[in-house]
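Researcher: Good morning. I'm working through a list of sequences from a screen, and I'd like to move beyond sequence-only analysis. For each chain I'm collecting a predicted structure so we can compare shapes side by side. This is the next one on the list. No need for commentary yet; just the structure.
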Amino acid sequence: MLHPSPWASQPGYGPNVNPDSDPLEATIALWAGSGAMALTRCGKTPPSVAPAPLANAMRQWAQELESATSTWGSGVRVDGPALLGERAAIHGFGPCGCRGSGGHASVGGGARFVRVADGWLALNLPRREDVESLPALVGENIAAEDWSVLSAALSRIESRELIERGSLLGLALAGLHEPAPGPAVSALGEGIGRRIGARPLVIDMSSLWAGPLATSLMVRAGARVVKVESASRPDGARLGHREFFDLLNGGKRCVSVDFSDAGDVGFLRCLLESADLVVESSRPRALRQIGIIAEDFVAAGVGWLSITAHGRDSLAGMRIGFGDDAAVAGGLWVGGDSPMFVADAVADPLTGLRAGVEAARMLASGRSCGVAVSLSGVAASVPMLDPGVVGVDVVDWAGSRCINPRARAAEAQAGAVGAHDSLFRNGGRLLPEALSKW
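Model: Good morning. Structure tokens for this chain:
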């Protein structure tokens, strides 16, 4: 059961606004109280109410999470709608920015909308190597940061071709009117019955936001969670705000693996075989290249939760994505003279909570199974409001009462990369006592 919005009992809604009796207005009230509505605006424009159903979805999934975790551990209570603005609250991010070219930038600043031959494209460049790949994306020998020249080159290419090129270059792009993505949740296979103890073992091979959020909720429910990172390329979120990283990864044991070393991969395989549930966010081919096949582990009795940007199949499985661009691919963007992003990388917290629900249900079922969750699929599962059905008085009321984002406090500091290696391994050998004594 969630606490009411902070201002829910305040008088003065106006003569035509009654969120206690009108479902649409109640949805908008929940959105205004989430902190995410305050982020979905640019300059002096009023914040948008179109994404209001996101808050309802997050509230529903939070209730489902509490119910599922209560069956095997401590019921986890979380303010679902507030998760949408949590990173922005910690980082001190403000609303979307506006670029000189007219395209809106994301709250975090890494993504922007750019004009292309057939409209607009969301282009996400959170890493230095992404910017360096831009000349290859447009197929011209130009300076990577010369945006006047890049913008002209992009305007001559259609979004579909850019997305195809981007998938080969490892760039995150999304068009406004892409074909509908695959389902939010799909099956990877059914395994065998498995007795799961009071403190299930979860191996977390995910990174950044959605996966670590899901597994952090399992920590709160009482699960033992081991965070596995590449020794040479650890979780990129470590480079961000420490408080946010601690919030998502505190309470987990941290193990490092050299994925190019056969002994390390052997250790990883033993660790995965000991798990009740594995959570990962790799493109499918990355794990297959080292002989880690999700379906094989499921058949052997290990639960497997795969989080991807756009799904695991064919070309979709080749694409990478982050919260802002994956949301756009799923239809979560606000129209206008130029499109605008919804909140802060909104597909990440949406998917993180939805994946947390799936993880809790898998641990409650007592049977191994495989589940795939995609960011764009989750985004597409929550429809936007048609602004035309919302009265001006409701929009004005919601805009005047939307509150700033807020965040939970981290309950523990996250360990350093490989901080617990010595507890779990002796060279390439897993130490079983590390699991039995924890």
